[in-house]
Amino acid sequence: MTKNAELILNIINGSDEHLTAEQIYLKLNEQNEKAALATVYNNLNYLYENDLIRKVSVEGYPDRYDRTIRHDHLICKKCGKISDIALEDMTEKLRRAVGEDIISYDLKINYICEECRSEEKE
Amino acid sequence: MTKNAELILNIINGSDEHLTAEQIYLKLNEQNEKAALATVYNNLNYLYENDLIRKVSVEGYPDRYDRTIRHDHLICKKCGKISDIALEDMTEKLRRAVGEDIISYDLKINYICEECRSEEKE
DNA sequence: ATACATGCAAATCTTTTGCAATCAA
DNA sequence: TTGATTGCAAAAGATTTGCATGTAT
């Protein structure tokens, strides 16, 4: 694990947002830790392939990177905002239902967030 | 609903694969129904916005389009293959757990498909 | 010395857009 | 005739790649 990989992992683990590669790149610069955007991508891929981070894709937005700790996502269909929500772990249940050895699962729940709902009323 | 939108909807509803925009474009050409790739995208967006089709994103692959009938997805982490699986509908359960009015949910189950598993053994 | 990590720019891939031409009501 | 739909090419945005350079062991 290189220094950059570690810095990036710390940024992701220390944030409860769902950062894009570019946002991570900008955060690195704020910390005066220079790294090219391509390097950020390279490191994100390394972290992802080694299951140290998760990737969350929402249509219309660039991929976002997230902690691996088990949780699910609420996705606002209007503004694309992602919120974490920890529902019961269904891994075992799914394993039985699927009858296959599963690695993990991703549950995205689509809704309209409060801000977007109140905007709609106007 | 234009003719092209209908042709595209029929291709999606008549396929149990999970086609990309380009594959749909090629299928149209096979049927001697010419439509530019951009037109395919335009129509896919129209269908998607009107909830006539679903979009499935798997990292590393272009978006795929799918029927709306409720079902979940098994995703092979090795080759990206998507298979359908119909698990119990959790909408009501999630609505209660989340305490929000939810629109829908997407459940993707990650595993290694049989072909990839037997390749690994070699 | 060797292998890996980086920066940068260019390339790639997917998707969207602008605009002129065409089609349909 | 008016507005929506199309085709095409160009643009845009996200991500990857190639290569020369730098770094660590």
Description:
The structure is a homodimer of 122-residue chains. Chain A is α+β, with helices and mostly antiparallel strands. Chain A is built from 5 helices and 6 strands, in the order αβααββββαβα. Chain A has helices spanning 3-13, 21-30, 37-49, 91-98, 114-121; strands at 19-20, 54-56, 64-66, 72-76, 82-85, 102-111. In chain A, the strands form 2 sheets. In chain A, strands 1-3-2 form a 3-stranded antiparallel sheet. The longest helix of chain A has 13 residues, at 37-49. The termini of chain A are far apart. The interface between A and B is medium-sized, with 25 and 25 residues. β6 of chain A pairs antiparallel with β6 (102-111) of chain B. The structure holds a DNA duplex (25 and 25 nucleotides).
In short:
The structure is a homodimer of 122-residue chains. Chain A is of the alpha+beta class and 122 residues long. Chain A contains 5 helices and 6 strands.
